[in-house]
Structures are given as structure tokens and as C-alpha cells.
Amino acid sequence: MDKATLRAQARARRRAFPPEERAARSARIREHALALPELERARIVGCYVSVGSEVETDLVLRALLAKGALVAVPVTVAEEIRFVRLDHPWVLAPGAHGIPEPRQPWTVIDGERLEVVFVPGLLFGRDGARLGNGRGHFDRFLATHPTPLRVGLAFREQVVDALPAESHDQGMDVLVTEEGRARIGRPA
């Protein structure tokens, strides 16, 4: 199956979850994600801001800030991702592609300083492959910033046996669903 068809099917499946179920499942994903050993010692963490039917990250962002981490969220500038400091998740405004982001002026965080980065996706392979929305923003960022631990957040229906991959596609080190964590890459 081609990527466009896979994306359309994945979006439809994810949108079918009732809001209450999405919230409850996102809360379980958050618990598993926040229990990652790397987060115990991480001082600088990147995390996407959820939109639509994605795994909800607002509670992840709040928990990271409460533990004293420097939290950075992606903004799109000239079709490239930059991570900027987030001080308060409740003061976000729609940015590029309708994705919430902090109001300017931004404090840009060097991507190499990120220790852990939570990455969105439409589908994830059991081998860590990731199928995003098709713009390539996260793939380009991850290709040029290999240091952070890459953590994909997904509902269990978003994890599949295999995905078509191209040379520029970037994989995950850990997948987190409501059922737990699967370490694909680097050890804790």
C-alpha cells in the first residue's frame, strides 16, 4: 500500500475514537512515557503539541514543566522545525499548519541539546519506522539532530508490523502506547 493511502486510513481510524476514549488512552500513554528512565535525568526535553486526533500531549508538557525540565516544542519556520522554549502550555496560539505554538518572541533551543524528543506520527512500525503527515518536517530535523532519544507516542492501532520506508525516513528508539513501552533502539 502506498503512503498516501496508509495516511488516509490511519487518520480515519484515529478520528473514530470518541473524545473521552482518546483522553483516557492518552492519559495511560502519558503515564508510560513519563516513566521512561531517560526522563529521570533529562534536563531538556522536546515534545510536540498535539492537534486533532493525535495522542494528547498537554498533560505530558505540564508534567515535564512541573518536574523542572526545560521543555521545548516545535515551531515551523520556512518549512523547517525549530524547537523553542515552552514556559506555559496554556498560552499557545495557532501557528504554521494550525499547530499550537508559544507566542513570540521565542527562545530557540539548539536541537543538539535535546536529550529526549517526543515525536508524533500517523503509523509506527514495530521496528521503529514512522509514517508522519507527509511534509517531512520531523524527518529532516531528526536526520540533522541524531542525539536525542526518539520516542513515538501512539495508540495501539497506530502500530503495525511494517511500513514502506524511504532513505530519508527517520525511525524511533522507543514506542509508547497505552499498553506500555517497546524499546527499539538505544538502551536505557
CATH domain class name = Alpha Beta
- Strand composition percent: 25-35%
Biggest sheet, spatial arrangement of strands: 6-3-2-1-7-10-12-13
Oligomer: single chain
Distance from N terminus to C terminus (CA atoms, Å) equals 34 Å
Describe the structure.
The chain is of the alpha/beta class and 188 residues long. It has one domain: Rossmann fold (3-Layer(aba) Sandwich). The chain is 27% helix and 27% strand. The strands form three sheets. Strands 6-3-2-1-7-10-12-13 form an eight-stranded mixed beta sheet, sandwiched between helices. It has a three-stranded mixed beta sheet with strand order 9-8-11, with helices on one face. A two-stranded antiparallel ribbon has the order 4-5. β2 and β3 form a beta hairpin. α2 packs parallel to α4. The longest helix has 16 residues. 34% of the residues are buried. The model has no long low-confidence stretch (mean pLDDT 91).
Task: Reconstruct the topology from this structure.
Blueprint: H1 3-15, H2 19-34, H3 37-41, E1 44-47, H4 58-66, E2 70-77, E3 80-86, E4 92-94, E5 100-102, E6 108-109, E7 116-119, E8 123-125, E9 130-131, H5 137-144, E10 149-153, E11 159-160, E12 174-177, E13 180-183
Parallel strand pairs: 1-2, 1-7, 7-10, 8-11, 10-12
Antiparallel strand pairs: 2-3, 3-6, 4-5, 8-9, 12-13
